[in-house]
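quick one
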Amino acid sequence: MRSPIDVVVAGGGFAGVAAAARLARRSKLNVTLLDPKAACEMLPLLPDIAGRRLTSAAGQTSHRAIAARHGYRYIQHAALELDRAARRLTTTEHRALPYDFLLLAHGGHAAFYGNESAERHAIPLRTLADALRVRRSVSAAAQRAFLVVGGGYTGIELATHVHRACALCARGAPRGARSREGTTAPATAGSPSPRVIIVEAADEILGMQEPWMRRWALTHLKQLGIEVRTGTTVQTVEPGAATLSDGRRLTETTTLWTAGMRVHPIPGSPAANGRLAVDEHLQLGDGVFVAGDAAAFTHKGALLPPASYIAVQQGRRAAQNIERAAAGRPLLPYRPLLHGFVIPVAGGSGCGRIHGLPLTGRPAAAVHYSAAAARAHSFAQRCAILRDLARSPS
Ligand SMILES: Cc1cc2nc3c(=O)[nH]c(=O)nc-3n(C[C@H](O)[C@H](O)[C@H](O)COP(=O)(O)OP(=O)(O)OC[C@H]3O[C@@H](n4cnc5c(N)ncnc54)[C@H](O)[C@@H]3O)c2cc1C
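structure w/ flavin-adenine dinucleotide:
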């Protein structure tokens, strides 16, 4: 092995930053983190940003600032190609980065399952830029309806935020994050609020969650007047229109896509389109480790779901194993600590189960926002989250 030992971390989300920070702090390894984005974005707050409850400052911290604080090198490139035999990663700017150990933590992007019209015209929710696009479409809203594709927790959360933002616009109340970010008055002030419709291909929403959570969410959506159509898919999406599998065509409609995730492909990593199957040490082999949404980790016969706290745990354990491998010590297995899950909804409410305890209403929302504030990467970001929550009507 060369000296000093080079570690490259591809992806600066929850997993990548947790790993790079630990490696830079606790080891003598040379750590470089690659991410095409200039800032580390907090995905769990995107629905709030889309719905104007939070400003974009609450959802990001610059990678340069994080890297300077922890003491690793940051390069604003994406990993383009991996040569595992040569232990070399090539970036989008054609820079070849030799490594002794590589951590793939490059997360996922929206999966459109071959629906090209949706890929072209629907708005996904995977980045801050996506959230701001949704926000602009709500503010512009000459639309009569918002169609949210996907009845998982992101779809439900987003639908409630869009509904709330539209209602505020219709009441002519441009309060909350958007007004403070200097955009113009809502186009819809005084007009009726657009419909919000969720379509879900399966027979029920929140298929993976406990039945009581499904019931809670359905009741909440019904009270808000958000329509839910299960057993329905979107056939085609056009600018301002969508056609459903039941033949209905919705006009003056913006389509928002939350229906799935697939891993960013990096040629040379084994499963180009899916999550990468790792062993109990989070290894692919040949000095390559994987953490976060990019990793397919099986626990008690099922794949772990994508979740920010799991990404952080895996990032830290992968970093620890890289340190141990560099020192010739045996690796440690990753044993997930599953805390549970909250499905937050707009208006400071939600439902979920944390450490076995069922939560509904404000306590559920409090858990969600406290976890986000705790995981913020800078004091400024944490202050922005708390300030926006305090100022915004819930
Ligand atoms: C809208 C939404 C809401 C969510 N809400 C919750 C929630 O309430 N609770 C919860 O626990 N989880 C939630 N999640 C899931 C959670 O955000 C993810 O599980 C978590 O972000 C995964 O972390 P990660 O580090 O693996 O990937 P990410 O956070 O996605 O980070 C991956 C990084 O890799 C970068 N990247 C991509 N391609 C490359 C490349 N080729 N080279 C280098 N870098 C690359 C990306 O720019 C990105 O910065 C939500 C997700 C979304 C989309």
